[in-house]
Specification:
It contains nine helices and two strands. The chain is an all-alpha fold and 168 residues long. A two-stranded antiparallel ribbon has the order 1-2. The radius of gyration is 19 Å and the shape is globular. The chain starts with a strand and ends in a 19-residue tail after the last helix.
Length: 168
């Protein structure tokens, strides 16, 4: 935790995680996040678009998607991360390379590479903080790339799952 030039406490991601895992929710309720949004436990869902400065009614779906992606908290090291190289480096044989390459092209065609970078960041953060997540669920287990990143533990090649089940 640091104190900014205005004397307000600013919490890092690790600080917030530590607060969340502690028994003291009073600290968390008073936490000032680095983007100057105070945690309000009574915040209603209807206020979220205003809170994030979205004008939903004036945006197309693709514009809204781009705006959401630009507002994700993701460290620069993950924004600039070569996720394709990382995924391909995880492959052990030609069959895995072919499947991963095909899937990566499909993710790229859909402008979803930043999502893969974010998922890598999320998995790394959960591992670092010893957070347990599920083995896999739904159509996402059809993605071999997500398996290689660590999002789930179902090897879609082993079970002969088609990527078309996920990226329809």
């Amino acid at each position: 935790m640091i104190t900014d030039k205005y004397g307000q406490q600013v919490f890092t991601e690790q600080d917030l995680f530590d607060l969340y895992m502690s028994d003291s929710d009073t600290k968390l309720k008073n936490a000032l996040l680095s983007d100057s949004i105070k945690f309000d436990p009574n915040l209603e869902i209807k206020n979220i678009p205003e809170l994030l400065n979205y004008t939903v009614s004036n945006l197309s779906v693709s514009e809204f998607d781009i705006q959401c992606q630009n507002n994700w908290f993701i460290p620069d090291e993950y924004k600039d991360f070569d996720i394709a190289k990382y995924v391909l480096d995880q492959c052990n044989n030609e069959e895995e390379l072919q499947r991963a390459g095909t899937e990566l092209l499909m993710y790229q065609e859909r402008d979803m590479m930043i999502l893969l970078c974010y998922l890598k960041y999320l998995v790394d953060t959960m591992r670092k903080n010893n957070i347990v997540w599920g083995v896999g669920r739904g159509s996402s287990v059809a993605s071999f790339v997500l398996y290689l990143i660590g999002v789930h533990r179902i090897n879609s090649l082993y079970y002969d799952l088609s990527i078309d089940e996920f990226l329809k």
